[in-house]
Amino acid sequence: MLELKLSYTARPIRFARSNEESFGQLYSDLFSWSNEHHDDSIIGWINEQLGVGHRLLERYYELRKRIEIKMVHGIELEHVQKGS
Question: Taking the complete model, does pTM exceed 0.70, yes or no?
Answer without folding.
Answer: yes
